[in-house]
Specification:
0% strand, mainly alpha, 105 residues, single chain
Amino acid sequence: MLMHDSIMPSISHLVQIKAAVKIKLQEGNISDEHQLKELRTVFNSLDGAEEAMMTWMRNYKTNYEGMRDEEIRSYLLRQKQQIYQVGEKIGESMKKAKVVLASSN
């Protein structure tokens, strides 16, 4: 959970960036088709990263009743790997979105 707690604050920043991308898309003043495609791609990437975090949180078990110690350790290790991947996805999508937003100004 420590890793989750370190990643979670970046979700609010992700939501802000996603909103900025959405506004750019809705403004409709982008004539460059490549730039429009990039904005759509980063929007979908941000959306996917946010959904990955929400899915991980929904599926995370806190009740280990009936599980052996080795099963608990194995489960927690898998969860640690999964939340690390979610964090990477969040970071990468925000980094790319910032670049695309900066180039669309």
